[in-house]
């Protein structure tokens, strides 16, 4: 039975960076950030002279947004015409055209269009009329497509007018910023180069820190592996469960029967060889679909995706049969058998709270196998 308690993972010792090196690292980063901040202040200071032009250019009432809305609305209406004149079923054509008209209506029904363009209000009424006729089938498809020409013409007019406004806004904007561009360019270039230089010094120091961090990660990774078999250890099992939150998993606990007698008969080096062989055999028997762990001594665990207990039972059965086919000799086995395993399993949905219960359920199943004479498997149904 698996009874060993979880051993805490050894934490790497983080050596404090020397004060002088910390100060240098902080200084390069600070100077770089201050340089880029100065660049932003300069840009904001210069741009305040042309803020009204920027506001007019990009605002809702300006040319750019208005032109975009009218263009999109026109495209939707042209798509509606294409749907109406296509050879698809009448109901499908009307449904598609209705959707395009509704989208065009939403883009056209804006205050600036109603206020500044006399054709906008009649066009909206015409779209309302067509939508109502589509519902009652009071107009044929060709007539409906023809009726859309007037709203399309209105939107085209709006679009062209907005393009003209856009050109005027661009000219005003260019004229307002021209006198400031030279000062802004050279000042920005100087500050930017200084910032890059400071940033390069910062990055060089950061790479050194990254290398130290990578070495720490490698140390932690090694701490999560069993040095004898190369598979995960107990800490890795807990980590991998938490990494698969809310997934349906199966946990299999494996214990080598009479392993102490095996070591007494063959010696510990041969016992270590058997552990490595069994780790490989478990992985191959489970079709390399499981993540394997050595929990300590002769105890192994396997974690795999498992939608139901029937799947887990199949894996447990494969494991026992695979070992029997391998036929590892065990001269000290009390039942005159080769190497045998006691296997317990449980299914669970991965979570911080559910894993201890699943582990306990699999452990109890393994204990029942041992109590019944070993060399078998059981799966707890209600884990």
From TrEMBL:
An example Gene Ontology molecular-function term: diguanylate cyclase activity
SUPFAM superfamilies per UniProt: Nucleotide cyclase (SSF55073)
Family matches, as Pfam families: GGDEF (PF00990)
Reaction equations catalysed: 2 GTP = 3',3'-c-di-GMP + 2 diphosphate
Enzyme class: transferase
Top-level lineage group: Bacteria
Protein name from the UniProt record: diguanylate cyclase
Domain GGDEF: 247-382
Membrane-traversing stretches: 25-45, 183-201
GO process annotations (BP): cell adhesion involved in single-species biofilm formation; negative regulation of bacterial-type flagellum-dependent cell motility
Organism: Vreelandella sedimenti
Gene3D superfamilies, alphabetized: 3.30.70.270
Record's GO cellular component terms: plasma membrane
